[in-house]
């Protein structure tokens, strides 16, 4: 009786995992590419294009779309339609490109969030220096440096990946480690560097969010203190109202960054830990369903930013409505919006 029950359970788990493999990728690709494309369009409008943080958001959406359109479809074909995968003289190049893009873009998404959050922490901690420290030009240099670093760290995926034989179904691509030096790098150096990279990225995200949260709370307390006192002059009332507006704007951006940070940690950390631990499941179907869940969580994160921005950003929703409704804003509206956005970034 117990054997029958266990067999039924394994069969059910295997069926659920197979359904995830079949339907999750195309759904996530459709939603993710659509939403990320909207983020790119919105971040290039006059309302956001003058703010360095929007540059990080735009580039992050581009990175997400690249992996959704290049790396993810190959995984879907491998797990659901392996007979459709090209086999021939150039099959290894498919693995070189997709394997490299899949790994490097995942790392880029994490480190971009860390850089964006750190920039916000610097801006809110040093508001007087923010206009000179947090510029679009410097953000471009930071992103270029991060791209070069991640590409160099993961370059062996691009150079030495190859497709496994057709009758091997566990995975599609592997790294050719016949070279002794490369074997040492892949088996020892890269795992250590990757773990350090993830630890530092998550540390920066957590530490920066703590700074942002504390600064916003201090601003709230300052505004509340001024409002609670007996104010007889207009200047004091104006100062109180100004602090209240700035703390409200900062709180909105803070909530957005915290949600973004929590989401990327919840969605990417399980797979990172899985790669480190490499658990050995007695039940193959249990291992399959566990890997499916944590693997697709990474791609859920690649679709989530648009919804996080909509939930927490009134200006983002305003820009989205203007695009959907085809509304055109005049020069006066653009100047006002840019001024308000810059003010919310630096205070």
Summarize the SSE layout with pairings.
Layout: H1 2-43, H2 52-69, H3 71-80, H4 91-125, H5 130-133, H6 136-153, H7 155-160, E1 161-163, E2 173-175, H8 180-228, H9 234-277, H10 284-312, H11 314-325, H12 331-346
Antiparallel strand pairs: 1-2
Helix pairs in contact: 1-2, 1-3, 1-10, 2-4, 2-6, 2-10, 4-6, 4-8, 4-9, 8-9, 9-10
Could you list some keywords that capture this structure?
single chain; 2 strands; two-stranded antiparallel sheet; disordered C terminus; mainly alpha; 12 helices; 347 residues; disordered N terminus
Description of the molecule:
The protein starts with a helix and ends with a helix. Helix 1 (2-43) crosses helix 2. The chain has a two-stranded antiparallel ribbon. The model is unreliable at 1-9, 232-247 and 329-347 (pLDDT under 50). It is built from 12 helices and 2 strands, in the order αααααααββααααα. It has helices at 2-43, 52-69, 71-80, 91-125, 130-133, 136-153, 155-160, 180-228, 234-277, 284-312, 314-325, 331-346, and strands at residues 161-163, 173-175. The protein is an all-alpha fold.
């Amino acid at each position: 009786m117990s054997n029958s029950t266990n067999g039924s359970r394994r069969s059910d788990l295997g069926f659920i995992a197979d359904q995830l493999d079949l339907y999750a990728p195309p759904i996530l690709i459709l939603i993710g590419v659509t939403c990320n494309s909207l983020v790119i369009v919105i971040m290039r409008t006059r309302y956001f294009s003058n703010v360095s943080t929007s540059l990080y958001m735009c580039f992050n959406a581009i990175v997400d779309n690249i992996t959704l359109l290049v790396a993810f479809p190959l995984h879907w074909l491998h797990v659901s339609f392996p007979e459709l995968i090209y086999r021939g003289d150039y099959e290894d190049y498919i693995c070189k490109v997709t394997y490299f893009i899949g790994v490097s873009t995942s790392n880029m998404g994490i480190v971009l969030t860390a850089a964006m959050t750190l920039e916000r922490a610097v801006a809110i901690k040093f508001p007087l220096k923010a206009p000179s420290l947090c510029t679009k030009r410097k953000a471009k240099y930071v992103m270029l440096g991060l791209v070069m670093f991640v590409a160099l760290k993961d370059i062996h995926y691009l150079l030495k990946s190859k497709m496994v034989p057709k009758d091997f179904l566990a995975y599609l691509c592997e790294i050719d480690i016949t070279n002794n030096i490369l074997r040492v790098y892949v088996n020892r150096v890269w795992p250590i560097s990757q773990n350090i990279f993830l630890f530092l990225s998550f540390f920066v995200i957590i530490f920066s969010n703590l700074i942002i949260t504390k600064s916003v709370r201090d601003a709230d307390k300052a505004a509340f203190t001024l409002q609670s006192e007996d104010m007889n002059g207009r200047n004091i009332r104006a100062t109180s109202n100004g602090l209240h507006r700035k703390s409200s704007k900062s709180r909105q951006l803070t909530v957005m960054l915290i949600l973004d940070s929590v989401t990327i940690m919840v969605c990417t950390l399980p797979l990172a830990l899985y790669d480190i631990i490499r658990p050995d499941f007695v039940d193959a179907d249990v291992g399959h369903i566990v890997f499916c869940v944590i693997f697709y969580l990474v791609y859920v994160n690649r679709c989530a930013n648009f919804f996080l921005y909509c939930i927490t950003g009134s200006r983002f929703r305003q820009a989205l409505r203007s695009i959907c409704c085809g509304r055109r804003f005049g020069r006066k509206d653009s100047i006002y919006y840019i001024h308000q956005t810059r003010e919310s970034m630096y205070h």
